[in-house]
Specification:
heterodimer, A: alpha/beta, Rossmann fold, Arc Repressor Mutant, subunit A, 2 domains, five-stranded parallel β-sheet, four-stranded antiparallel β-sheet, 40% helix, B: alpha+beta, Beta-Lactamase, Helix Hairpins, Heat Shock Protein 90, five-stranded antiparallel β-sheet, five-stranded mixed β-sheet, 7 helices, 51% helix, rod-shaped
Chain lengths: 225, 448
């Protein structure tokens, strides 16, 4: 994928550029509104990662000019949460997704992948299948090999994170971030407890756990077969 | 309201008092002046009476009367018979004394004087016209009656005048205050949400116009500083979060390349960047609340799953402790709410309950709809918050003094929770339940 990153803070841009390259994508970088529009017009990109606060003119203006010029690229906006109504304004102006600063690089890459796969305005799938696990998100219903398993609200959220990207390793911190948007005093310990409870409910007796601990890094979901 | 009324009343009262003082001062000058004038007039009359008598004596029936012979009543003109009258001859011998003097001698010098005679104030005038010395006098009765009537008249009119002037002053006060009342109403309607509005300028060029101009200039300054404060909170969120975003991205990069041995440490640092973010968001939220600019992204939301998720957190928070959690929940709970903000309220309440409940304690959570309100109650056992601290727990950077200072938290949680509840049109309050538990009660409008 060819990605255009528009971010005016050089150090943050450097980290993001490096992470995108490592994930195997091509990346261009623009540091202000006017040069973002210019670069976007000059070369084709599949996706734009667009910061809201920019010198020149802001991200909304960039988005408006791109849409006015008929450029179809998908747009992931970066906002600082408390910028009033940014999310609403961004989505109205035609952004496809948004991410709030500060964000985890893994999270950013995951969103980029999702947007790359996604046909722009399709509904996200409501039923996730991984091995013999089946999770219906809207009905909040989990079955393993057809057998119903009752989960508490948070256990379900944790499992959903693993099932959306099976095989990827999530750090405790990233899981906390997804479940409680806001930092929480005991969150990492709390996540450990939820994972413990989740294992008790979904693992087969005697078999190794399908949620594997990756020492020092975090957890991932791994189903035999 | 009372202040506005009292100004009218004061204007009326002060005008009435001022009028009474003016009236009394005027009377205290007028009454003696009239008396002096009347007495001067009387003196002139008495003198001319004396001259008339002497003229008569010099030419009584065609010839002068002998000035050494005593005079009888027939020599006295009829017009003078009511007066006190003494006529003395050239050697000082008394030629005539009017009978109404009843033999009293009048020892008077030359000129005019007032003297008491037979219990009445009298005016006496001495006139020397050779060869006679005439002493002539009369009672001051008429003048004194006139003075008395004048004073009585003034006295009777004072209350009436005072009432009339009071009413007039009250009416004038009301008319003078009317534009101020209008300005007050207009100024009151200018709130944080309509700071661009201004008071209408009156067409007159009086004090009211000046007051309006001054108020409008004050509103200009207020709007400017308010807007810069609001801009600050928007800028600050960007300014503060960008370095945190850089830190976070740097730590993520470090985690992906570093020796696995230091990963737990990097993870700890990443956690700190999240703490920093939460703190920045809390402070900005309070800044927005203070500026009256706390914007909610409110939409139709069922609060029941949010409460269930928080309860799940609570259950885990007290996992390794001997605490009983009892829940009595209602579902669904429809509200127009900003789900992200409701989660913050719930998280703060849950953490608070977990923190302050001692081992072997219990926590009761209940939710229900009462009328048009959603009522969420979180009650926990433990030392009750002392009476004087019950409001203080909602203040910024305050924690109940009864609890140990070793419990972590930046002291903003309950304050933020209350601000958010109020922004939703609800309330967060503390009370002690009938069974003696600390209880935080969150009410939110129900949109069924």
């Amino acid at each position: 994928m060819d990605i255009l990153l528009v971010e005016d803070e050089p150090q943050l841009a450097a980290h993001v550029v490096r992470a995108i390259k490592r994930a195997g994508h091509g990346v261009d970088h623009a540091a202000d509104g006017p040069s973002a529009v210019e670069t976007a017009m000059k070369r084709h990109h599949d996706l734009m990662v667009l910061d809201v606060n920019l010198p020149g003119f802001d991200g909304f203006e960039v988005l408006a000019r791109l849409r006015a010029a008929g450029l179809p690229m998908r747009v992931l906006m970066l906002t600082a949460r408390s910028e009033v109504g940014d999310r609403v304004a961004g989505l109205k102006a035609g952004a496809d997704d948004y991410l709030t600063k500060p964000f985890a690089l893994e999270e950013l890459l995951a969103r980029i992948e999702a947007l790359g796969r996604r046909n722009p305005h399709a509904e996200p799938g409501n039923v996730l299948h991984v091995g013999d696990l089946c999770l219906d998100i809207s009905k909040r219903r989990l079955t393993r090999a057809g057998e119903r398993i009752e989960l508490s609200p948070r256990e379900l959220e944790v499992l959903q994170i693993f099932m959306q990207e099976p095989g990827r390793t999530f750090s405790r911190d990233e899981i906390c971030e997804r479940i409680w948007e806001r930092e929480h005093e005991y969150d990492t310990r709390t996540v450990e407890i939820f994972i413990m409870r989740l294992r008790k409910k979904i693992d087969r007796k005697g078999a190794p756990s399908i949620i594997t601990t990756v020492r020092g890094i975090g957890y991932h979901l791994e189903l035999p077969g | 309201m009372t202040k506005r009324g009292s100004l009218k009343f004061k204007v009326g009262l002060y005008s009435a008092l001022l009028t009474i003082i003016a009236l009394l001062t005027g009377a205290s000058v007028l009454v003696p002046a009239v008396r002096i004038h009347q007495i001067t007039d009387l003196d002139a009359t008495l003198e001319s009476d004396a001259h008339e008598l002497v003229r008569d004596l010099r030419n009584f029936r065609g010839a002068p009367v002998d000035p050494r012979r005593p005079l009888t009543l027939k020599f006295i003109p009829l017009s003078l018979r009511g007066r006190y009258l003494v006529v003395e001859g050239p050697e000082g011998q008394t030629l005539y004394q009017s009978p109404n003097l009843r033999g009293t001698r009048l020892e008077t010098s030359t000129g005019a004087e007032t003297r008491e005679l037979f219990g009445h104030s009298c005016r006496l005038v001495t006139v020397r016209e050779e060869p006679y010395l005439i002493r002539i006098g009369t009672r001051l009765g008429t003048i004194e009656r006139f003075q008395r009537d004048l004073l009585r008249g003034i006295g009777v009119s004072v209350p009436f005048v005072a009432i009339v002037v009071f009413l007039g002053g009250w009416w004038l006060g009301k008319r003078a205050v009317a534009p101020v009342t209008a300005i007050t109403d207009a100024a009151e309607s200018i709130t944080a949400r309509s700071l661009h509005e201004r008071l209408p300028m009156p067409t007159s060029r009086d004090e009211i116009a000046r007051l309006t101009a001054v108020l409008n200039r004050t509103f200009d300054r207020l709007q400017a500083s308010y807007e810069s404060a609001t801009r600050f909170s928007a800028d600050a969120s960007h300014q503060l979060k960008t370095p945190v975003a850089v830190l976070r991205a740097g730590l993520d990069h470090l985690a992906s390349t570093a020796d696995p041995a230091i990963l737990p440490e990097v993870d700890g640092l990443r956690h700190q960047t999240r703490r920093l973010t939460a703190l920045i968001e809390d402070l900005l939220l309070l800044a927005q609340a203070d500026a009256g600019r706390l914007h909610l992204e409110a939409e139709q939301t069922d609060l029941a799953p949010l409460i269930a998720a928080s309860l799940d957190d609570l259950d885990v928070l007290v996992d390794n402790r001997d605490i009983t959690v009892k829940a009595d929940l209602t579902a669904p709970l429809h509200a127009r709410a900003d789900a992200r903000r409701i989660r913050i309220i719930l998280q703060n309440l849950i953490e608070n309950a977990a923190k302050y409940t001692p081992d072997q304690g219990e926590i009761h959570v209940s939710s229900k709809v009462v009328g048009s309100r959603i009522l969420l109650r979180l009650a926990n056992s433990g030392a009750l918050i002392p009476e004087p601290d019950r409001e203080a727990v909602f203040e910024r950077f305050r924690r109940g003094s009864a609890v140990g200072e070793n419990i972590r938290g930046h002291g903003l949680g309950l304050n933020i929770a209350r601000e958010l509840a109020r922004a939703h049109g609800g309330e967060l309050a503390y009370e002690v339940t009938t069974d003696g538990l600390n209880c935080f009660e969150l009410t939110l409008p129900y949109f069924g």
